[in-house]
Amino acid sequence: MFDTVNRDNTNAVKWERFRKQNLLPMWVADMDLASPPAIVDALSERVKHPLFGYTHPWPSLNQAVVDWCQRRYQWSIDPAWVVWMPGVVPSFNLAIDLFGKGGKVIVQSPNYPPMLQAAERNGCTTVTIGLEWLEERWQLNWQALETAMVQDDCHLFVLCNPMNPHGATLTKQDLTRLADLCKQHNVLLCSDEIHCDLILDGSQHVPAGSIADLTENSVTLMAASKTFNVAGLGCSFAIIPNADMRRQWSKRMEDRIPYPNFLGMIAAETAFTACDEWHRQLIIHLKQNQDFLSTKINQLNGVRYRAQPATFLAWVESTQPEFRLDQHVIASGIMPSEGKYFGDEQHVRLNFGTGFDLVERAVELLESYWRQNNL
Ligand SMILES: Cc1ncc(COP(=O)(O)O)c(C=O)c1O
């Protein structure tokens, strides 16, 4: 079920961008695995109808999100809180445009590059807070966070949870602590949770908006796109419990943000209603890939990968200051996401969301390069 799909002749960004260099693509967060058959069937059924005009979200679509949130995260939401969007990146940009008020916007670093850039793109100033490796997991630097929040012109924290690139997650206690800080300093939270259905270690994802003290002052961003391999269908959703914030959001969307792709909405409804078993198997597959990659990578000299609970992304670290891991990985024949774009050039990010054969191939390339170069 989870073999690598040959993506030739599909204009797949992941495979085309570095095709000439003949590098094995392990960069962009896009999996090489077929979408669940139920999604393929639902889309095929719809395209039999020959008209693809503007399409509103429909009640069973919102209900699918409501039921998913209840079933997966024990979060009871109202269908009216769900606002459909054409993507998560436009969503956190809209959040900054709307709620950043031209002031300081907090983001973690290292982080997904569009999130690092979003504040400046919307007339605000980025304040980065670091992450700390504490108690065997990546944690927000709480001291830095509070220092940032205290500033008068800081109105918004754009959080990435699960974290890209680390794959770390915030616990319920973390989110409760964050809720207290947000309340105390009057800071809104926009939480990008696009990777929340990719928890590999059996732990439970906690949506920001499900924390009582965050419900009324947060926007939670989710999508079926990463988990169910439908990222090209341009569709995500924001959960905005606060009616006034939702009104402002919808108003700001007018004439700026296009309708989400209705095929993406069909895919999302199907993902949340008919793909539980596929999803269960996917997690097992990704965990196997992660375990294998982690074992092998940690045998390479000068390299460390501390496997984290979430995502199909491995944040791999060079343990020697002068060692350019990105250059070595590329020289070995693999295209990683280079850490410098995430705010840390000592790392690379490797995407293991593919068939096991390609993860094995990547390991072979790395091992043989390390051997040949006496690293
Ligand atoms: C944290 C995070 N947010 C957003 C996105 C992209 O979202 P979208 O394609 O819905 O705009 C990605 C893609 O890698 C991501 O990792």
Question: Could you characterize the architecture of this molecule?
Answer:
- The chain is an alpha/beta fold.
- The chain has two domains: 13-36 and 276-372, Aspartate Aminotransferase, domain 1; 50-274, Type I PLP-dependent aspartate aminotransferase-like (Major domain) (Aspartate Aminotransferase, domain 2, 3-Layer(aba) Sandwich).
- It is built from 14 helices and 14 strands.
- The strands form three sheets. Strands 2-10-9-8-7-3-4 form a seven-stranded mixed sheet, sandwiched between helices. A five-stranded mixed sheet has the order 1-13-14-12-11.
- Residues 29, 87-89, 112, 160, 164, 192, 194, 223, 225, 231, 236 line the site of pyridoxal-5'-phosphate (PLP).
- Residues 29, 87-89, 112, 160, 164, 192, 194, 223, 225, 231, 236 line the site of pyridoxal-5'-phosphate.
Relevant terms:
Aspartate Aminotransferase, domain 2, 5-stranded mixed sheet, alpha/beta, 375 residues, globular, Aspartate Aminotransferase, domain 1, 2 domains, 41% helix, 7-stranded mixed sheet, binds pyridoxal-5'-phosphate, 14 helices
How many domain modules?
Answer: 2
CATH architecture of the largest domain: 3-Layer(aba) Sandwich
Helix content: 40-55%
Please summarize the sheet with the most strands: 7 strands, mixed
Q: Biggest sheet, strands in spatial order?
A: 2-10-9-8-7-3-4
Overall mean pLDDT? 97
